[in-house]
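Justification of resources, computational component.

The compute hours requested in this renewal are based largely on the per-chain cost of generating structure records like the one below. Each record pairs the submitted sequence with a full structure-token output. That output is archived, and it is also reused by downstream analysis tasks.
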Amino acid sequence: MTNEKESSQITSHLNCRISTNRKFGAADLDEWLLGKMGLKEGSNVLDVGCGTGNHLIDMAEIYPHGNYYGIDISKNSIEEAKTKAIKKNLNIKFICGDASDASSLQDGFFDVVMSVYSLYYVKNAGNLLDVLKKKLAAGGKIAVMCPYRGNNEEWYSFLSSFMKIPEEIRQIADNFMDKEVLPFAKSNFSSLKTHNFTNTIVIPSYGDLKNYWLSNIYHKEEFDNAFEKKAGEFFGKNNKFTITKRALLAIMS
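The structure output for this chain reads:
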């Protein structure tokens, strides 16, 4: 995670995308993820690329006696996460820094180390995974969730009608988990469980789609006019815009 735009963690943009997914999506990522993690009371949890802390806050509310840590490069996101945790009187320590700052945390301490929609922003994911493995307590696990095959295809197709999407962006879903995460898991852990996540987001109006565009990591002001033209044409013929989010969660232990 090298800067706020590349990390996808500009706070207002991040919150808008989360709000869109929650308001118009068919699946609840936070609830789904919590159900897969198998947390217990008293667990020590680290979230790398924690954004505004939603996952950790959910976990700490249900299991308040654990030790929770979150790292993110966005100062604004970390400040918002801290504010939310303080209001709820939750025991969460938030650190503003690059993912590599996890190396300063105690080895052999964490029962769960997680990274949700973040690891693919790291320059050398393999090196970071090596670091995170050292942080695990005996019997601990690493959980990584990233976009997977077929993710965002409708959105990419729409954007491609007026701008060029970098090929490496589209390859993240096709390649990152298969080439970076799963081979690491198979080489370094005795157990690997994978879970596919799909969220169909039905955006009902031009205004809602425009808000999503303005918060998107692909947004550039130079394409605003082209977006408005294409989006206007689309909603002149259709009453909804559907985006299918697909991701893979890999839990290694």
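The longest strand covers residues 136-147. The chain has one domain: 4-149+167-197+247-252.
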